[in-house]
Amino acid sequence: METTRQYVALTDLRFYAFHGYYPEEQVLGNEFTVAVRTGFLRRETGGDELNRTVNYETLYNIAKTEMQVARKLLETVAETMLTRVQEEFPFVDEIEVTICKNQPPFGGDRAKAAVTLSWNRHPKEM
């Protein structure tokens, strides 16, 4: 039996936010980029209905809302985004969230720090 996997993703979402372990990061803020990728089995072909897919406007609003809540760790922000995507789209069986801090406070004029959380409802055997 043939199946079709569908992926819906947003990449390079830019936010100015106040995440960081150090107090000065929570005061000064930083620029972040966010990517959210979802995957699921496509149940039906054809049709042009939004309820058959992941609404990327909803993904954007989840990312925007969570980026506005200052937290110490990017892992916490990514985990909250991942959980909200699971709740909003229960048919999704893969989610990946990446958050990148574009100028972390440890130096390096082009340095970036990133955290990625990847969830799969049906992990492959190791």
Automatic annotation (TrEMBL):
Keyword match rRNA-binding: no
Enzyme class: lyase
InterPro entries attached to this UniProt entry: Dihydroneopterin_aldolase (IPR006156), FolB_dom (IPR006157), GTP-CH-I_C/QueF (IPR043133)
Enzyme Commission code(s) on record: 4.1.2.25
Pfam families: FolB
Pathway membership, UniProt: Cofactor biosynthesis; tetrahydrofolate biosynthesis; 2-amino-4-hydroxy-6-hydroxymethyl-7,8-dihydropteridine diphosphate from 7,8-dihydroneopterin triphosphate: step 3/4
GO cellular component, one term: cytoplasm
UniProt keywords, alphabetically: Folate biosynthesis, Lyase
Protein family: Belongs to the DHNA family.
PANTHER family referenced in this protein's UniProt entry, alphabetically: DIHYDRONEOPTERIN ALDOLASE 1-RELATED (PTHR42844:SF1)
Protein's recorded name: 7,8-dihydroneopterin aldolase
Organism whose genome encodes this protein: Parapedobacter indicus
